[in-house]
Amino acid sequence: MSWIENTDLNTGVLWNIVDFDIFIHDNRPMYIYLILFVLCPCANASRMKLIAGHVIFRHGDRTPLASYPSNPIKEKSWPNGYGHLTSIGIEQQYRLGQYLRIRYGSILSTTFDPREIFVRSTDFDRTLMSAESNLHGLYHQRNISNNRTSVQPIPIHTERAANDVLLGQNYCPIVNRITSEAYQSETFKQLNEFYQPFFEKLQMWTNASNITLYNTQHIPDSVLVAHIHNKAPAWATEDVRKTLAEINNIIFYFSFVNDTVKRIRGGPVIQDVWSNMNRSVHHDTFYKLRMYSAHDTTVSAALAFLRIHYPFQPQVTPTKLTTTRSILFLIF
């Protein structure tokens, strides 16, 4: 299993995914061989064979989700309005699809085969369009269904948000209660008090009221996204943006600090991955690649469930060069 954040230096495109690979060794699909192979580079790599992959990724770059009172950039100034995929986001996902073709080209046919790949998305335009853009990159110049057209439709499965347990979009009173309790902890209160002077300045800049860690009113998102598109206000200096990013990270950390929340929000998608892994190693019918197009909360929940300590908001666009980090994923 890998957590991948990798920036293309030529385009500034950042890939932000969690992926899971299954290998077999000597025709024996035992995870222990993966560990021995990783720990012992002298192992016979030619006898290792990739048989299945699973990818969970956040949608590409999008417009802000909301605004603030003093913001001169109104919703009509953003292509397609708030919360939609941008041209940058389309390119990000297309290039991610190209990367996945390189990574999984050994197990996928060059043309689309519905028996090989299954794509699941949340029911949001930006995630559905991200999945579609990704698939264009994955099957670039190979998506020809017949001699009369150059189009190969590929199904993207989804579920209404209210019912989407798999990718963690459904309403859950237990999660809401536990999250509220986390926000009432002494640590959270101390952090809120620490940032209070900054919030007072933020209220002056934005004309918003009652800004706290409990209620940031989408201001960090609005400002950070505007900066990416060269539309940030003059007061949004590098130091201000850094503080806003810190605030986002704190909120994400406390959103998944509880084990019950990790299980409810991250457990279903990991269970889905595990089920397909089981089928693949026992030679049952399985998909060679399962893709999940979702949100920062989905990626964070999956990492939190696996107890991988990455308590920050997964990004869709780069603020700095990051490197690929491989992490062992062991299931007994």
UniProtKB/TrEMBL annotation:
This enzyme's EC code(s): 3.1.3.2
Gene Ontology MF: a single term: acid phosphatase activity
Catalytic activity as recorded in UniProt: a phosphate monoester + H2O = an alcohol + phosphate
Signal peptide: none
Gene3D superfamilies hit by this protein: Phosphoglycerate mutase-like
Keywords annotated in UniProt: Disulfide bond, Glycoprotein, Hydrolase, Signal
The keyword Hydrolase is annotated on this UniProt entry: yes
Entry's family note: Belongs to the histidine acid phosphatase family.
UniProt-listed PANTHER family: ACID PHOSPHATASE-RELATED (PTHR11567), PROSTATIC ACID PHOSPHATASE (PTHR11567:SF211)
Name of the molecule in the record: acid phosphatase
Species of origin: Adineta ricciae (Rotifer)
